[in-house]
Amino acid sequence: MKFVLAAVAAAMLAIGSSSAARAQTPLDPENTLYLDLFCGRVSIQLLPEIAPLHVERIKTLTRQGFYDGIVFHRVISGFMAQTGDPTGTGRGGSPLPNLPAEFTPTPFVRGTVGMARAQNPNSANSQFFIMFADGAFLNNNYTVWGQVVEGMECVDQIARGEPPANPDRIIAAHIAADIPAGTPAPTPTAR
After folding, report:
1. Superfamily for 2-178?
2. Which residues contact 43 (CB under 8 A, 6 or more apart)?
3. Mean pLDDT for the chain overall
4. Domain spans in the chain, listed from the N-terminal domain onward
């Protein structure tokens, strides 16, 4: 029993250490997604080394302006905030074809960004979610493609509900490399 507890503690420490190391590593502008929300900017480190097809899809849709103005249509306290559906119903997607799964052992922890899908593992398209808390039950069942490195306190403020009565939306999404140097982040606004 002591060995099992020690192993679990070591694994949790390793997860925390890798997240901390990721946050301290300078971000690659080509693999950094900015989500501008009412409460400020959320910076997400994209992970092309584990989900190249999903990262490329997020970058393509972001550069097309697809995510600008889209609501968070499913937001569950202690679990996650989901967005990426232009219809706001949870049933919509982009006109691009669905993606094959890119499941990895990368754990779903607070701030992890994963791709939403239907029951078919190869049905991810444009919807994604940001974890409020750890969700080990998602490991190896959903594709991890990013990690929030700044602005998690803003994610925590997204209105809850399935759907929320007054859903928050993505004001604008950008790939950091596409923003001219020196451009300030937007200032938070009232809902």
Report:
1. Cyclophilin-like (2.40.100.10)
2. 27, 32, 33, 34, 148, 149, 150, 151, 176
3. 89
4. 2-178
